[in-house]
Amino acid sequence: MRPHGLRTRVILAAAVAIVVAVVLLALAVPALLSRQLERSLDGSLRARAADVARLAASSPDLVTERGALEGGGLLVQVVDRRGRLVARSGTLGIRVLPLRGPGRAALDDRHASTADSTLGTEPIRLYAAPLGELGASEAAGGAVLVAGSTAETQATLADTRRLLLLVALLAAGLGAALAAALTRTALLPLSRLSSGARDIAATGDAARRLPTPPATDEVGELAATLNAMLASLERAREAERRFVGDASHELRTPLTALRGNISYLARHGADDAVLADLEADAARLSELLDDLLALAREDAAAPARGEPVDLAEVARAAADHGSGVDARPVVVRGERAALERAAGNLVRNARRHGRGTVTISTRREADRALLTVADEGPGLPPEEAERAFERFWRGPSARGEGSGLGLAIVRAIAERHGGRVRVDGAAFTIDLPAASE
User: What kind of fold does domain 307-433 have according to CATH?
Assistant: First the structure.
């Protein structure tokens, strides 16, 4: 079964939320209205009963006179202490209010109370209160019963519930329509992004970009992020193409020389100079392949965690004959073999392209651990320093043979250890976060 789309889920959620809210309102409003109407009616019943009780106490003979109990449209009935009818209002006609419940409590227990009851088929609210026992009137020691019809109240509550139900349905329909319109507008940029992403996936063209909506909202931020990712992928793909091309070119040179020398040997026999060239070409090819594999490993490796490594020990391990070492203990966390390779590459680079004595030093500055390899030459000018760590790049003043990958490997190792490498003239520095004390 296909799951509902985001738009459908939003519309359903909006409709259900509105229906639930209005249903809760439909339950709360009639309950509050019923309580309010009931309190109002009870107040009227008690007030009318108090008037009759005062009349029975002050002028008992007037209680039985015609019209004495009329007023407010309420049903009034006076009974004696045995529950026999003494007087009733004209609104009762020939009907008699029931004595059960509040009436019996007023006669037997001598306390007032209120309850719902019925008069025939008509629902009523009945209040009964005891009358004074003094005096010789028929009503002495009896009770007064006052009732009011609740039919209109119940009809009002029923109409209110129906109205709220109708409002709930209308509100749900309106909410669903508004949610549909809003989600259509809100999701349109996402639909365009999805369509653009499918086209890019189908063509494999990382140079294309997704459409950016005019609004600077979350969708616009998503489009900008995805376009930045596509730009990064394009740069990575272009760098990969350049790397493959450069690697092919660099590998072709020693292979061509090897083939030429082998062909010469096949025609003229062994020659010390040719054998030396073969050995040099093989060594160069081996070095290039080793550097390519090292760089590939660094690109694929996860960020280095490793163990505590003292850069002073790394510096001493990387130093060759004739190198000066000024190593102060400073600890980083990383992989000793990779750090020693990076330091060794810097030393070999200084030997190959620098001048004079090569010095390796280590020090700590604040929370940074620094390993610097410097020679006595003029170093790289600023315009060359910016490109020194590119793969296969060799400066115009470079001397000797090299793969052009040594400094690129140094940068990859430094970045994998959370640091960086920088150059200042003839000084190359690996800058790493120092381990906590």
Answer: Heat Shock Protein 90 (3.30.565)
